[in-house]
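Posting for a labmate who doesn't have an account.
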Amino acid sequence: MNSILITGAGPTGLVLALYLARRGVPLRIIDKNSGPGRTSRAMAVHARTLEFYRQLDIADEAVAKGIKVNELHIRGGSKEKGRAELGDMGGGLSPYPFVLSFAQDEHEQFLLEKLKESGIEVEWETELSSFIDEGGYVAAELKKNGKTETVKAAFLCGCDGAHSTVRRGLGLDFHGGTYEHTFYVADAEASGDAASKHDLNMCLGEDGFCIVFPVRSTGLNRFIGILPPALEDRGKPAFEDVAPFIENLLHVKIHGVNWFSTYRVHHRVAGKFRKGRVFILGDAGHIHSPVGGQGMNTGIGDAVNLAWKLAAVLHGRANEAVLDSYETERRAFARQLVNTTDKAFHAIIGQNLTGRLVRTVLIPHVAPFLLGFSTVKKAAFNTVSQIRIHYRDSALSVGKAGKLQGGDRLPWVSGDGIDNFAPLISADWQIHIYGEATEEMRETAGKHNLALYEFKWNPACGKAGFLRNTLYLVRPDGHIGLADSRQDIPKLSNYLSSFGIGQK
């Protein structure tokens, strides 16, 4: 019996498979398509995703394959109305204090290569037709080339997109709606100020907008925008129909197109993310507007959150109670994200007076001015980069010490011989003490087979929110499980025993 069956080989499924493979968990990953996607939309890779990639030892290579976005240019036609320096806008907050432009199709190829290096290959043209949770395992029926195969898996993970077979098989609600606008996306060769090879351009007009990302591998630009109202009722438009509107809005000259597609955007969250031994992740569980480039990054966050829990349970390093926290943690964030991106999206694309003021005054003139202040820039980075995600309401989150609570992402501290993210590459539970651990704490860590890291106290530790000589039990995904200012051994032991952590 394979331990894990993953259906869907987009970024969410690939990261889930890669994480599990690196942890030595047997798995199969299938996809009904003939190969990886070629007409992807996601471009932005945020800091939290790169922090997870550092745990997989692939972050530096991912950064090298993408483009660090240095500046945001806000344009109205041929004129630049505002500019905001992005660069290392999150300096001191993350090892990756920038937004990375890395096209999803190339991103998927990169993940496929890393997965293959781990000994796993995607089974293309293989479709999940049905499944039954038998209590002790999941029985799934797969179809490929007209042949049917029945497999047994300890768990089934549906990473199969907005039209998820797994979600439908579970009978889950998918409440929400569809935005009235149609989006277009194109990889095209263009010339003009808005066709930068290194920066992000946002072009705003009275009736619409277009965002332009640089794509490293092709030297082309990725254009993402709203289909002009005049084309909405003409059926499925060709790029030749849209190109004149792009050229007029951006004042660029388009010389050729690599690919082009149109799509509708939905905003929905599934009623549940888990039933028994079956889970849904990524677009199968939540879809929302493209504001802030959150979709792909959120799916990857789902994958990491679930992967370490599945690996711990299957390796006997935690009991199944930890699996209950997946839905609690990730669905709460998905609902919050859909709500906030929905409001932001309506504010940007609204055709009323408010929408026009946002596009013509607030974004071009006010936003760049505010982003000139370091506190505002860091606050914006905290939000967009997803490093502020916390799980304080989770059963796995206990205690408070200093400014930090159980469930918070472990703040990054670097310098003076310290890099407290370096030990996270183990992707295992560990104890952090910023200062000095007691001898009893060292003995308890050894007893439970937990790595203990003592970091020399310096002002940066206090600035990050840590309390000196305090116990921080860190989860495999870099979030704090338990915080206790007294290094309370009974409290730590009780926490570990509650979830069976460190049993082997």
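Reply:
Got it, the structure tokens are right above this. DSSP finds 13 helices and 27 strands in the chain.
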